[in-house]
Amino acid sequence: MRAQVRAATADRIRIGFIGSGIRGSQLLGDFVKAPGVVPVIVADVYDGCLQRAQDQTDGAIEITRDYRAVLDRKDIDAVVIATPDHWHKKMTLDALSAGKHVYIEKPLTWSIEEGPEMIAAAAQSKRLLQVGSGAKTSAVTAKARELVSSGVLGKIMQVKMVNNRNTPEGAWVYPIPPDASETSIDWQRFLGDRPKKPFDAKTFFRWRCWWEYSGGVATDLFVHMTSQLHEVMSVEGPTSVVSQGGLYRWKDGRTVPDFMSSVYEYPGFLAEMSVNQCNGFAPRMMQIAGTEGTLEVGTDRVVHHFERKADNVQRYGSLSWPKDIRARYLETARKTAGAEKPKEIKIEQGASHTDLFLVSLREGKPSVEDAREGHLAAGAAHLANMAFRSGRRMHWDLKTNAVS
Hints:
The chain has 12 helices and 15 strands. The protein is an alpha/beta fold. A hairpin with a 2-residue loop joins strand 11 and strand 12. The protein starts with 12 loop residues before the first strand and ends in a 9-residue tail after the last strand.
């Protein structure tokens, strides 16, 4: 699919922003710094976010509470959507229908059922859709994929990934601004089609803590890992998963777990993923274990650990032999044990995920993370949640999207 840039020239891309919360403000900052990008208008339901967006653009950006006002603008080429998960599907479909290219923050979906409709809509629209999972396109991921594809690790049967955060911020206990009220926040717009409930500033600013608006640790943090895993291992998605977890620390009314560990079955290997908001010893780590070696993948480096070669001298296995026979065996057997020292590969970061979106727009290149890839990464997280909430192993048919 080739993107059809609607700006007067590909060097000048006019962007509207839907959602300017924590992540939305980061994306606004990224795009504002990019050459040739013109921030036109931002929509958010909290006046404080709108004010900050104007601060970020020296007052140049227009503001509105109604995201449809962004989509109605004929002078906008693309929109950036960074809202609570329960709004992703509707806003994306509306944006595509309005002829806009879309950068949608991960996870693509609020539920696994939403994926196929969004994939179809993106295909029919002939517009570019990119999901915002930056780990998928990082230079570290590319190097890990290269090494895995080369076969140097031998047969891979296990991948371990963690993302642990032991702070109130890491557990989404975000501060509530003093001006938060029903006057400064359009509460009904935030709720959308979710069950009606009285205004609650804690729910608004910490929405990831409730199933109605989020998939918790899985859709927030597993998705970073699943999108990277799929890229590195050249796989589409898991066939099954089991999950355990619960609320162990953050007894603040949330309904999603603060610790969850899942084991995924992929063709030929298992992938273990966990997020623990009660401990921060391993903030972010990926280990890929093969018969010939192991990769340790960090945020800015890859370490190649070589597997220790087998020793043809069995010291333990020969303990029951007669003393003189064992002595002659140990003396004459040829020792071949040993391993190369770990090789650390420093990685220089390349173009950012947002830069790649602009490249695709300008050059008509395919999305670096299209709707199907976004669905598979988010779907894996949804599957883990379904396993956790049902207490049983869940199976996923990637072709039909059926879950059983």
